[in-house]
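Example 3.2
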Amino acid sequence: QVQLVESGGDLVQPGGSLRLSCAASGFTFSIYAWNWVRQAPGKGLEWVSDINSGDDTTDYKDSVKGRFTIERDNAKNTLYLQMNSLKPEDTAVYYCGPYGTPFWGQGTLVTVSS
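Structure, written as tokens:
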């Protein structure tokens, strides 16, 4: 059974940090590239970052480059997103999913506000 569970979202002040996790089951985790996407209130889904399988090369949306870091732990079937220097415009529900599939978790809410 395919399951994705995101966690780690919270209310944080501007400039703060959070680490999101995505626990995957029902996938051969290591063979997939993985995405983080987000949906801000009243807006559509927006790609944030991805990490390839094999060489673990990464890519980021321009507005999060230098602030966010995507990582994967194949032994734990877990994807991470370290978010530093958070801004109010990072407020969104964050979702993880394997690249090129229709699978997403339930999301985790990140709110950046003073």
